[in-house]
Amino acid sequence: MASESLAPSTSNDSEASCVSMVDVLREEEKLEADATAVLGDSDIHNCTYPASYIPRQALYSCLTCNGQAGVCLACSYECHEGHDLCELYTKRNFRCDCGNDKFPDNKCKLYPTKDPFNAQNIYNQNFKGLYCVCVRPYPDPEDEIEDEMIQCVMCEDWYHGRHLGSKDLPIDYEEMVCTGCMQKFDFLWAYNLYSQDTKTIKSEESTAVVDVGGKRKSSNGPEGGDEKSQETSLPTCKGDAKTNNCDTEPAAKKPKVEKSEDSTQQEAANSCLLKQLLNRDVLDRDCATFWKAGWRSKLCVCPNCMEMYKDRGITFVVDESDTVMAYEKRGQDKQTPSSQYDKGLQALSSMDRVQQVEVIQGFNDMKSELSTYLKKFADDGKVVKEEDIREFFSQMEARKRQRTAAPFQYFCK
């Protein structure tokens, strides 16, 4: 990349520790992209309460006010500035609690008129700053093992990778379902094996049927019957199962036959992909599962399955727009065309070589001084506040003015 030549080369150990402006701009771009992904589809200026239960939004729990409530992004800035906030990343179908009866001493500044409680909100241990089956905070000051945290798509709790029951975590997955949710929604095992271990489904005209709980139970139907192998998509050809010939007679020549309600229900049951998958032997496993992109689109959406999703409160599982990836994509689409990285490179390109070196040297000086300044906070165990950072830059600006004025003071003597 041509812009890399803007940074001076490093030839010794002391210079090797310096950071070029291009490095800074790249880091800024990465941070900007991460922030846009998490916050980009959330409203930074207005409380989201009037929009009711938002399909997905960035949320925070205020441990200073109440460790069992969630506030939206705008309220975290306006109503809870300086408070001990716990970042919850994103949650689905949540309505902002800020200022309701969970906050008796802190009314919402952005939208004061709110119902006492939000009955449909779901809270878990994350709102208290605790995560995983180990029920520990993150980051955990007592945990010396470096481990990534992964969010379960069903319960939306966060888990250490080492506590998911899998020896090796896959690298090509989009979503994870934790061990507890795999036990609670055990019908997912059929899809997990289907998507990872098989290429075809064997459909039998016999025994197994599926109830709304996703369990398998035997029926009194006829046993045996001819098998036919069909592709992973649902069958579209309603032909003769014995001859495997499609009925291609034009619809206009067919006599119209009224279907009874029972026959319609039976036809829906026969077209249920989950029923076909559960005809196989599926063993429960005591571990989390990892799912590749697009797995939700493979779930059965027949009337029986849709009723099952509704009864169990998981209709979101067949909604691709519910995914965090879709949420982040919406945030990225809102991003301004010109990033800080692009603006920085444009500014550097307009400078001559001397100016570039001066800017880079100034940045390295600031980096060194800031590290020294912040070290005393780390040594004393103090929290760095906004006024501390303002004080640092004020002191740095004063020193800069002194250095600039010094030569003129000398010649005036």
TrEMBL record:
Task: Report which superkingdom the organism of origin falls in.
Answer: Eukaryota
Ranges of residues in domain UBR-type: 45-113
What Gene Ontology molecular-function terms does this entry list? ubiquitin protein ligase activity; zinc ion binding
Q: Which PROSITE patterns match?
A: ZF_UBR
Bias category Basic and acidic residues: which stretches?
Answer: 250-262
Query: Which CDD domains is this protein grouped with?
Result: PHD_UBR7, UBR-box_UBR7
UniProtKB keywords: Metal-binding, Zinc, Zinc-finger
Region spans: Disordered: 206-264
Q: Where are the zinc fingers (UBR-type)?
A: 45-113
Q: Which Pfam families match?
A: zf-UBR
Question: What GO cellular-component annotations does this UniProt entry give?
Answer: cytoplasm
Q: Which Gene3D superfamilies match?
A: Zinc/RING finger domain, C3HC4 (zinc finger)
Protein name (Swiss-Prot/TrEMBL): E3 ubiquitin-protein ligase UBR7
**Species, as recorded:** Mizuhopecten yessoensis
